[in-house]
Specification:
The complex is a heterodimer of chains A (395) and B (336). With 395 residues, chain A is α/β, with parallel strands linked by helices. Chain A is 43% helix and 21% strand. The radius of gyration of chain A is 24 Å and the shape is elongated. Chain B is mostly helical and 336 residues long. Chain B has a two-stranded antiparallel ribbon with strand order 1-2. The relative contact order of chain B is 0.18. Classes of the chains: A alpha/beta (395), B mainly alpha (336).
Chain lengths: 395, 336
C-alpha cells in the first residue's frame, strides 16, 4: 500500500513535469459600465504579456497561460465579487489581473481574493484606501498604478526643494480634489511646512473673487490649485493674478495642459507643478511591440501589461503557480537589484530567473513597488519658463 | 499707513468686486422687477434671456474682431452691445407672440405664467448651448486694467495692492447710464408714463385709452435691453458660460424681492445689498483686522463668517428673512 502511494505520488510528479501546466489568469475589468471604453485595450495589454510568456515556452518549463475575462462593472461590488468568485472556484485562476475601479477592487479583495488566497494586481485602482499598511490583504494585493495619496507626497517634495514652507491650498470640490488636497496637507505638514488655508472651490462658476479673497487673506508663498484647468482652477488663477493675491502657483495633474500656458503664459512665470509622466524608454518599447493591435497609449493599458507580467515573473521566481508561494516574489521581480526588463523582454527575464539570476522589472510604466506593494508612480516636474511649460525633471 | 493698507486690501477684495457685481445684479433685477410690475409674473427665463443676449454679444464681438474692428482700450464687446440688444429684442418679442400672449388672452393666473416661463427658460438655455456650446468663451479684449496691482504699489508705495479691471469700471459706468436712461424713460416720456399707469392699475389704464399690447411690447423691449446689458457686462467681467446665468437667477430674484418687486429703485438697492452681503460675509477678515488692530489683538484664525462655498446660501437667507419680516421689500413693492 505504502509503495503504491509512493509510486503514484512519483507518477504524479513526473506527469506534472512532463506535460506542461496550463495556467489560467483572471482578467477582471469593467467591460460594461462607466469605463467600458478603456477596458478593452487594458485587457488586450494584459493578454499581450500572457501571450508573450506562453509563446516563449520558458515559464515553469513550458507552461502556457490563458486569460479568462470577467466583468467587474466598475461600480457594482456584488456583481464584481460574484464574477471573481466564479473565476476562482469554477475556472481555477491562479491570479487576477484587476480589478479596475477602486470600489470594486476593494470588494473583490476583501470578499473573494483574501478568502481564497489569490493574488490580485490592479492596474488602475488609485484610492488611498487600498493601501494595506498592516497586511490586511495577507500580502495578496498589488497595484501598478500609484495611490492618489502619492501625488501629495511628491508635491511636498517639489515644494520643499523649492524652499517653500507656507502655502495656501484650494481644491475642486469633489473626491479627486479633496483627496489630493488632504493628502498634500498631511504630507506637507509632516515635512514641516504649513498650510494657511485649505478651501474648496466649485467648478463651473464665473466668478471666484470671493474664494480668492479668502485665500489672499490667509496668505502664503504660493497657491496650490488642485483643480481642473478647463474648470474652476483657471478661474481661481485668473482672479488671483488680477487681484494680485498670488504671483506663483503650484499645479497638480488636473491643471497641467496646453490650456494652462495658453490661458496664462508668462503671467504665472516661475510656477511649478507635477503630473504623472515618465522618461523611461519602456513606454516607447511597449508602443512598438503593440503596433496597431490596440491603442498602447490608452490610460492604464501599459499598467495592465505590467500587472500581468509581474504575476508571471513572480511565478517563475517562485517556481510555482501557487499564489501562496509566488505572492512573496512579486516585490522581488519588480524592484532592483537585477537586470532591467522592458516590454517585449519577458522571455529574457524568464530565462534569467530560471538561471537563478535576479531581474528588476521596469516594464512599460517604470514599475517600482513601494510600501505594501503599490507603484511609486512616476511624475514629471514642470516649471513655467518663458510662458511655456518646461520639464524640470522626472521623479 | 496701516489704516490705508487695510482700506486698500478691503477695496481690492470686497468693495470693488461687490460694486461691480452689485451693478450686474441691479441690471438683472430691474428686468425682473419690470416684468413683475407690468406683466405680473416672475420671469424665470430672465437669466437665460441674459444668457442669450450675452451669446449674441460674444458672436458679434468675434465677428468684429475678425473684421479687425476694435474699440481702442475698451472692449470690442461694447460695440457689439447694440446688435446683441436688437437680437434679444427679437427673441423676446417672438417668445411673447408665440407663448405669453396666448396665456395673457386666457387671463391665466400668475403661477401658470411662472411655470410657462420656466419652460421658456429651458428652451432658451438649450438654444444657447446648441448655438455656442456649453464651454467657457473668451471675448474680452482691450486694456485689462484701469490700474493694476503692480502700478498701484509703485504709485503709492503701500504694501497692499489695488486692481481695478477695465471691465469693472465699464460695468459701473454702463450700469449708471442704463439706469439713468430707464428712469428718464419711465418718468418723463409718454410711453413710460403709460407703462407706470398700466402697472398701477390695469383697468384704469385701459379705460384711459392705453393700448395694453403696446405697453407689453415696450416692456419686453426694455427688459431685453437691460438683460442683454447685464449679460454682456457679467460675461465681460467674469467669463461667458451658458450655465452661469442660470445660477445668477437666484441672486437676481433675491435682489428684486429684497428691494421690493415692482419697484425699480428697490431693484437697484437690492442688487447692492445682495452683492455686498455675499462678499462681506464670505470674506476672510484676517488681513484687514491685522492692519487695524493692535498686535496683541491680532487674529490667528481667518475671521471668516462663512466658507465661500455658502456664497449662494447668503442670498437665500436674506431672501427668507425679507419675506418673513418685510414681504413688500425695502422699497414697498408688491408683496409676493
Amino acid at each position: 500500500m505504502k509503495k503504491l502511494l509512493l509510486a503514484s505520488a512519483a507518477g504524479a510528479l513526473l506527469a506534472g513535469a512532463a506535460s506542461a501546466e496550463e495556467i489560467k489568469l483572471g482578467v477582471i475589468l469593467g467591460f460594461t459600465g462607466p469605463i467600458e471604453s478603456l477596458t478593452p485595450s487594458m485587457a488586450d495589454g494584459a493578454e499581450l504579456a500572457m501571450k508573450e510568456v506562453s509563446d516563449s515556452g520558458k515559464l515553469l518549463g513550458g507552461a502556457t497561460v490563458t486569460s479568462v475575462r470577467a466583468d467587474s462593472t466598475c461600480i457594482d461590488a456584488a456583481a464584481a465579487s460574484a464574477a471573481a468568485e466564479r473565476l476562482i472556484t469554477a475556472e481555477g485562476v491562479k491570479g487576477i489581473m484587476g480589478a479596475d475601479c477602486s470600489g470594486v477592487t476593494g470588494a473583490i479583495l476583501n470578499n473573494v481574493a483574501v478568502a481564497n488566497g489569490v493574488v490580485m494586481v490592479s492596474p488602475s485602482a488609485t484610492s488611498p484606501g487600498l493601501s494595506h499598511a498592516n497586511n490586511e490583504d495577507n500580502g495578496l494585493f498589488f497595484r501598478t498604478a500609484p495611490s492618489d495619496a502619492r501625488q501629495g507626497v511628491v508635491m511636498t517634495e517639489v515644494l520643499m526643494e523649492e524652499g517653500i514652507k507656507e502655502v495656501a491650498v484650494t481644491y475642486t470640490n469633489n473626491d479627486y480634489g479633496k483627496g489630493l488636497a488632504d493628502s498634500f496637507q498631511a504630507a506637507f505638514e509632516a515635512a514641516g511646512g504649513s498650510v494657511t488655508i485649505n478651501a474648496a472651490h466649485e467648478d463651473g462658476k464665473a466668478d471666484y473673487s470671493a474664494e480668492v479673497g479668502a485665500l489672499a487673506a490667509a496668505g502664503g508663498e504660493r497657491l496650490v490649485v488642485a483643480g481642473y484647468v478647463d474648470q474652476g482652477g483657471s478661474g481661481i488663477v485668473r482672479a488671483a493674478i488680477d487681484s494680485g493675491a498670488f504671483d506663483t502657483f503650484h499645479f497638480p495633474d488636473g491643471m497641467i495642459s496646453d490650456k494652462l500656458q495658453e490661458n496664462f503664459g508668462d503671467e504665472i512665470e516661475g510656477s511649478t507643478g507635477q503630473h504623472p509622466g515618465t522618461d523611461s524608454p519602456g513606454a516607447a518599447k511597449f508602443g512598438e511591440i503593440v503596433g496597431d493591435a490596440f491603442d498602447a497609449t490608452s490610460p492604464f493599458t501599459p499598467e495592465s501589461y505590467d500587472a500581468a507580467a509581474l504575476i508571471l515573473l513572480a511565478m517563475q521566481a517562485a517556481g510555482s503557480s501557487d499564489p501562496a508561494a509566488y505572492k512573496d516574489k512579486v516585490m522581488d521581480v519588480a524592484n532592483a537589484p537585477g537586470e532591467q526588463i522592458f516590454p517585449g523582454e519577458l522571455a529574457k527575464a524568464l530565462e534569467i530567473i530560471a538561471g537563478g539570476g535576479d531581474v528588476d522589472y521596469v516594464g512599460a510604466t517604470a514599475v517600482e513597488l513601494i510600501g505594501a506593494g503599490e507603484s511609486a508612480g512616476n511624475y514629471r516636474q514642470i516649471v513655467i519658463d518663458g510662458g511655456k511649460i518646461a520639464t524640470a525633471k522626472y521623479r | 499707513m496701516d489704516f490705508l493698507n487695510a482700506l486698500v486690501a478691503l477695496s481690492n477684495f470686497v468693495i470693488i468686486p461687490a460694486i461691480a457685481y452689485g451693478s450686474q445684479l441691479a441690471l438683472g433685477a430691474l428686468g425682473v422687477t419690470l416684468i413683475y410690475g407690468i406683466l405680473r409674473f416672475s420671469n424665470f427665463a430672465h437669466g437665460d434671456t441674459m444668457d442669450f443676449g450675452a451669446m449674441i454679444g460674444v458672436l458679434v464681438t468675434w465677428f468684429l474682431q475678425s473684421m479687425g474692428v476694435s474699440f481702442g482700450p475698451l472692449p470690442t464687446a461694447l460695440l457689439a452691445l447694440p446688435f446683441a440688444i436688437l437680437g434679444t429684442m427679437a427673441l423676446v418679442l417672438i417668445t411673447d407672440r408665440v407663448v405669453y400672449r396666448f396665456y395673457r388672452e386666457q387671463k391665466a393666473k400668475p403661477v401658470i405664467l411662472v411655470i410657462v416661463s420656466m419652460g421658456v427658460m429651458f428652451i432658451m438655455n438649450g438654444l444657447v448651448r446648441f448655438i455656442i456650446g456649453p464651454n467657457d468663451q473668451k471675448f474680452a479684449d482691450g486694456e485689462r486694467f484701469i490700474i493694476s496691482v503692480r502700478e498701484f504699489k509703485a504709485l503709492t508705495g503701500l504694501k497692499e495692492g489695488l486692481a481695478i479691471k477695465t471691465t469693472q469700471g465699464i460695468t459701473v459706468v454702463v450700469a449708471i447710464i442704463a439706469v439713468a436712461l430707464l428712469f428718464w424713460f419711465l418718468n418723463r416720456t409718454r410711453t413710460g408714463k403709460s407703462m407706470r399707469a398700466y402697472s398701477d392699475n390695469e383697468d384704469l389704464a385701459l379705460l384711459s385709452g392705453i393700448n395694453p399690447e403696446r405697453v407689453v411690447m415696450y416692456t419686453w423691449l426694455i427688459v431685453a435691453a437691460l438683460a442683454t446689458t447685464a449679460g454682456v457686462l457679467y460675461g465681460l467681467d467674469k467669463s461667458f458660460k451658458p450655465f452661469v446665468y442660470f445660477q445668477l437667477l437666484l441672486p437676481i430674484f433675491a435682489s428684486a424681492i429684497v428691494g421690493g418687486l415692482g419697484s425699480p429703485l428697490g431693484a437697484i438697492a437690492g442688487g447692492f445689498v445682495i452683492a455686498f452681503s455675499e462678499v462681506t460675509i464670505t470674506y476672510a477678515w484676517k488681513k484687514v483686522l491685522k492692519y487695524m488692530l493692535p498686535e496683541s489683538l491680532e487674529p490667528s484664525s481667518l475671521m471668516q463668517l462663512l466658507s465661500t462655498d455658502y456664497k449662494f446660501a447668503v442670498s437665500f437667507v436674506i431672501l427668507i428673512v425679507v419675506l418673513l419680516f418685510k414681504p413688500t421689500g425695502l422699497f414697498k413693492g408688491k408683496s409676493v
